[in-house]
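Pilot study result, target chain (326 residues):
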Amino acid sequence: MKITVILCTYNRCQSLQKALESVATSVLPEDVEWEILVVDNNSKDATREVVEGFCKQYPSRIRYIFEPKQGKSNALNTGIRKAHGNVLAFMDDDVRVKPDWLQRLTAPLQDPQWAGAGGRVVPEWFSPIPVWLKPQAWYAAGPLVQFDLGSNAGELFEPPFGTNMAFRKSVFEKCGDFLPELGPRPGSEIRNEDTEFGARVLAAGERLRYEPSAIVHHPVPENRIDKRFFLAWWYHKGGASIRQFGVRPGTKYYAAGVPLYLFRNLLVWTLRWMLAFSSAQRFSNKLNVWTKVGEILECYRNPLAARKMEDFGPQTQRVAVVHDGR
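Predicted structure:
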């Protein structure tokens, strides 16, 4: 087995240094070849200098490449093309891993029945949790980057999160690349590039493994524990869902390119928001309102794409419900 860790980065040289410090000390069996490939997605800070320092320290382990076309999916796809490994593991530039993370995440792929694997993403808190935030609520997993299906390993029936997943390189040859229209870029926080790809893999009949002992620690900076951040995140999630899934199959009635059922949904959630008694329920309903606004505006801006429903099958539809919490 040859493993490439793909780490895409943009203007995060300080957190990138900590991420590289953690993964560079990974411990794997002697017969496993592995490398770390850092894809610099047009950073303007000291990213290149940071990575080059690690390349000098680990000359046979770490490689640097520059991808000028902005967008995380573009960087990911470049990393896939340039990777030397036949197993590709993914992590973000603001996380920390333990020395056994890479081994635990990729070990299941020794078994040919598994096309990919995903592990737990655990939040790392630096500030007190505010009273309005319930970390285990449906709305918190995405904004806080939490992925935890418990302590028992087994088959994975939903896409893993992008900062802690691994796939055989051949899976990308079969299922295609990450979609450039998804994934964050300057001026857009629309995401879903990771879960959309995972849903595509599952819909193709491939099997994924959940490995809870492969743990990534994801920091929760102060700006994330803010209601405005959550509202913005779910607004963009609405737009991402339309880009990924389109509108409901069989939808007939539109106004200005927007399905009428979305206006009805918006009205229902707005009423629930206004009439809820508890502050927690009001906030939960408000997030659904913002999500619906994101869906409506995405349909309005791009009506033709919204009407094109990609048929990924029932598995993908179930995944959409799991990640949206609705």
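One observation from the pilot: Residues 279-301 form the longest helix (23 residues). A full batch analysis is planned for the follow-on phase.
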